[in-house]
Amino acid sequence: MLNTREIDRLAQDFFRIYIPPGWLIREQNPDIHIDYFVEIADSSGPSGIIFGIQLKGTTSLKYSKKYIKISMKTKHITYYLDRVKQPILIIVIDVKNKKGFYLFIQEWVKNLPKRTWKSQKNLVLKIPIENLLSNADQLEEVIRNADIYMRDLWPSSIIAAINYEKHRLEKLDSRCEISISHSNGKTNYDIRPKNSISCKFQIKHSELIQKAFTDFYDRGFPFSLDSNDIINVEGSDLIKDAFGKSVPGKLMLERKYESILLISTSNELNQETSLLYEVKGFLSGGRKEIRFDGGIKETPFRIKCFLEVDEEVITSCHFTITFDYSSWDRLPILQLPFFERIYSFFQAVFAGDAIKIVCEMKGNFLYEFRNAYISKKKNSQDDYEYFQTVYHYLNTINKVRNISLQTGINLILPKIDLISRDNIDDIDMIYELINRKEYRKEGSNIKITANMIPDDKSIEFIKERVNKKLSEPLVLEMQEVKYIIFGREIDLGSLRYTFTNPKLLIDEDITNVKYKKDNSIDIKIIGTEDSELIINKVSP
What we know:
alpha+beta; Trna Endonuclease, Chain: A, domain 1; 4 domains; seven-stranded antiparallel beta sheet; five-stranded mixed beta sheet; 11 helices; 28 strands; about 40% strand
């Protein structure tokens, strides 16, 4: 009877006999989990295709019609699967019958229906009896395919890894499209059926799961299951693969469909005044309610719709429109996506036009809701004020776009919190001057402080008019006037400033004026309730 050392020696001898001549055998010392690395070679030299071997010799091999069976430590198999990037072949030598068999271990383990084997101390391997080590051509083909398999399993880039997993899963169920993302240490698989498919889940019963499923069925809320809540899956090898693993995970079912809204406004004569046609988003819901959440890509426009349903009939529609100002931050003012359409929409709504919403999915009509208004009354006050704020912002941006067109300067839109009240006043003024050559502003709050060195004539002038409304306007002309808008200089040329009905003030008793060292005095000119500031462009 052979002892262990003799069996190992005979197994090594038979192994070297069976390996094709010319292949490069590199014995590992120490041989921890892997006994040899072998490189395929031919007359042209080494191929670069390297595989590892774990060699086992035995005199008591168990045969069946299709397989031989051999036990192996689970920790070794886990090491091959999780750590080793080269193909590993388990080679079993029956020294008694002088036969050798092999198994590509990583692929065999990956194809196991369950991964509960990791909790076992040992795993019984089933090696097909046709995997004869003596068939050199078959062995080489298996190794070359195994090399490709391992390169796909351990790709050199994240994109390659995701594509490999995507294609692998779609092969399991061609009825589905898969997208994969990875964030915060978690991998998310988005499975979308190309058409309706049937799949049966057997799950654990609990009140929480029952309530969650009811919300999913009635309202379309996402329905989430832990992997340990799923007992069995029928109808999809893809789902079986996902939940046949011991790795903890969650299955989330969502009724979520890509859809498009067409949003328009019409006036009292039922004439269309605006149209937003690129409002894309997702539709979700169930028997009792439907929701839409979307917006216009690359713009601040967002909308959420909520529809109540009773026996497949929509009974009411509520919608909320929001405006994410940051979506246009730092963009050239003349290239703001969809600005004209969005501005026209808010302009129409602010004027009191009716809103009509039509929802489509893949070009098919789903529902329509019309005759909605943003009212100033009752509970709609907050909505109206919000629309008013957005409209005034868009109106200011529209004026800046006009200024850019007129001056040839494509200004960059800053963050909204960097646009001050003074900026808006300057924009209004420049817009009016460029387009109408004149700008008028109520002047009761205007204050002008001046320092002057008076002579006898001016002293008499001041004495007659101090603390009184002046009958003559104050007129001032300035050359090469420039304003800064959004960080860029706008040249307005020569301007004439006319201040009507001002009032003259002086802090001291005019009859006892105390002059400063430079013989000057301070005077103030302020606006009255009838005052107006008029600015005109002066023709060259």
